[in-house]
Amino acid sequence: MTTSIVVDDVSKKFTLRYHRTLKQVTVAAMRRQELSNTFWALQNVSFEVQQGESIGLMGLNGSGKSTLLKLVNGVMRPDRGQVLTRGRIAGLIAARAGFHPQLSGRENIYLNAAVQGMSEAETKRKFDDIVEFADIGRFLDSQVGHYSSGMTARLGFSVAVHVDSDIFLADEVLAVGDRPFKKKCMERMKEIRDSGRTIFYVSHAPGSVRKMCNRVIVLEEGRVGFDGPTDEGISYLKYDNKADDEDDTDDDLGADI
Amino acid sequence: MTAVEETPAKGEPYDISHLPLVAPSATTGLFEVFRRRYLLRLLVRREISARYQASFLGILWSYVNPFTQFLLYYFILGIVVGLQDRFQNFAVHVFCGLVVVSFFTETFNAGTRSIVGNKQLVQKLAVPREMFPVASMLVSGYHVIPQLAVLFVVALAYGWTPDPVGMLGLFVALLIVGTLGTALALLFSAANVFFRDFAQAVNVLTNFVRFGVPMIYPYTLVSERFGSFAQFYLLNPIADAVLLVQRAIWVGTTSDPAEFTRMHIPDNILLIGLGAFGGSLVVLVIGQLVFSRLENKIPERL
After folding, report:
1. Alpha-carbon span B222 to B226, nearest angstrom
2. Within a domain: residue B300?
3. pLDDT tens digits, residue range B60-116?
4. Residue B13 binned pLDDT confidence (cut-offs 50, 70, 90)
5. Which of B19, B32, B46, B189 gives B115 a disulfide partner, CB atoms 3.0 to 4.6 angstroms apart?
6. Could you list the residue range(s) of the whole structural domain that residue B52 is in?
7. Do A185 and A174 touch, CB atoms closer than 8 A?
8. A208 and chain B in contact, CB less than 8 A
9. Which residues pair with A50 in a beta bridge?
10. How far apart are CA B125 and CA B30, in angstroms?
11. Could you read off the pLDDT of A92-118 as tens digits, one per residue?
12. Distance CA B215, CA B233 (A)
């Protein structure tokens, strides 16, 4: 087994700035109020992920899931501890980032693919597949600013799944797509999983986590509350009292982050 | 590019053990930017096409803007103030300065705003963030081309013959502006994330640049007034760049280039220019160091 992700005793602190203007700072100083205060979004988080595992990252809003994802994809750096990854990372944390509203869908595909590390030749080779998967039809050459949110998400997802990534991060996309598209996404993610790549899936939907993942990590106020088999993780979160989310298109699928 | 793993066909074993286990956020600063030239090219192209988006004249504005500025300075300073009589082809003199100054101020201004302006990308994707100030510099550099073209045409009409030393000087001048512009853009773009005041401060600073270089007044006036203290004036790399371009083009349009060079351009301007380039490189290194320190906090402060 090859280690794919190492998260070693990671903590991440955020600063809340109360007073940003000169006027506010002066007033606060005169009243002897605190000028800033900090909180730990993640505290002493440690785990290792082996290649080919698919992890469901769960937890309540504000428990640090997004922050953890950003540390894994390299947007943020931990304040303490270290994060190590192996291979190329692609993901849907970035689904709509990198889209320039004034550029056409076509131009944005090239730009977004390049941002995720694809070369020009690679993008050209996969271009037709990307367009076909996104299924945005004749809107390909109109500017992305005029797309509906669902269309933008489809385009983003499509680029991300076509990156030859070794680690695939997924969040938020499934929240916007319509039912047929969600289904298509889940199938595509299963393909990615079955090809032996590592998946990091953030979701509140126990049904889809159960189908996608073989391990669940639950974050609670920035700490790892649970790390283990899927079903136990879901019952740890007490998300399993809904017995009716077994079918392929469970309705809370995608209430992500 | 990072090592690419092709998706294996079904059934084939998939193995990444040969890839190194590294920090996902590790970057090598500016070197990373040049390693990912393809992305840089796309970003530059995006900026260029976005700038004149939905405008009828499009790229023509890149000619109209400097040309009208040129006419204004020419009329006010050359004719109203009367510098035209004492300094032959004063209009060309001003234009030489204008090319340098607008390259620099554009880089500085757009570069400072570049990270905040690309929030969407910076917050979600692990792109080397030096990419954005560098792209701003290249976009500004791209807009120098039409200005230089106008300048060349005007100068040739005045009977200018290009000389190799002058052309070398022109090249050094562009290097100085590009390097110093990038350096300051790096510093200020990161600072601007923390306090948006920096973008305002840059506006103020660029006004000083416009008057701190021998553009709308000749260097001769500075050396006449300040004598040996004029050497401190030459510590400004942008002033050196302006003088280099004037040495390359303006003096060549006058009736007696040798005399005009002796009169109006400091001795050893090429050496001074190379020194200024060295200085700009030092500022660039400092800019990169500060940027790397601030970079950690950029995504959460945006």
Report:
1. 6
2. no
3. 887 887 788 878 888 888 888 887 777 888 888 999 999 999 999 999 999 999 999
4. low
5. B189
6. 30-295
7. yes
8. no
9. A3
10. 17
11. 665 556 687 878 899 889 988 888 888
12. 13
Cβ density class A144-174: b for 16+ within 10 Å, e for less: beebeeebbbbbbbbbbbbbbbbbbbbbbbb
pLDDT at position A251 over 60 = no
| β-sheet bridge partners, residue A218 | A58, A226
Are A82 and B23 in contact (CB < 8 Å)?
yes
Pick from B287, B274, B297: nearest CA to B30? B287
Structure tokens given for B82: 């009367």
- Domain A1-87+166-257 fold: Rossmann fold (3.40.50)
Write out the residues of chain B at the interface with chain A, using a CB-CB cutoff of 8 A.
1-8, 10, 13-17, 19-26, 36, 38-39, 42-43, 46, 49-50, 53, 120-127, 296, 299-300
Q: Which of A148, A126, A145 is nearest to A136 (CA)?
A: A148
Tell me which residue in B36, B49, B296 faces A77 most closely, judged by beta carbons: B296
Domain boundaries, chain A: 1-87+166-257, 95-164
Residues 38..67 of A with a Cβ closer than 8 Å to B: which?
Answer: 51-52
Spell out the CATH class of A95-164. mainly alpha
Residue B22: which of A85, A100, A115 has the nearest Cβ? A85
Structure tokens at B302: 């945006």
On whether residue B214 sits in a domain, the answer given is yes
Virtual CA dihedral for A238, A222, A65, A79, nearest 10 degrees?
-170
CA dihedral (A106, A109, A115, A118) positive or negative: negative
Q: Is A25 near chain B, with CB under 8 Å?
A: no
Q: Which amino acid is at B283?
A: V
Token pair, residue A18, equals 């109360």
Burial of B77-97, coded b for 16+ CB within 10 Å and e otherwise, reads bbeeeebbeebbbbbbbbbbb
Chain B, nearest residue to A109 by Cα: B42
Strand partners, A42: A12
Backbone angles phi, psi at A111, to 5 degrees: -65, -50
Domain annotation covers residue B302: no
User: Is A114 in Cβ contact with B6 (below 8 Å)?
Assistant: no
* CA–CA–CA angle B32, B35, B36 (5° rounding): 90
**Domain membership flag for residue B1:** no
Query: What pLDDT does residue B140 have?
Result: 93
Residues in chain A: 257
Q: How many domains does chain B have?
A: 1
pTM: 0.86
Q: What are the angstrom distances between the C-alpha of A46 and each of A59, A71, A172, A181, A216?
A: 16, 13, 24, 34, 14
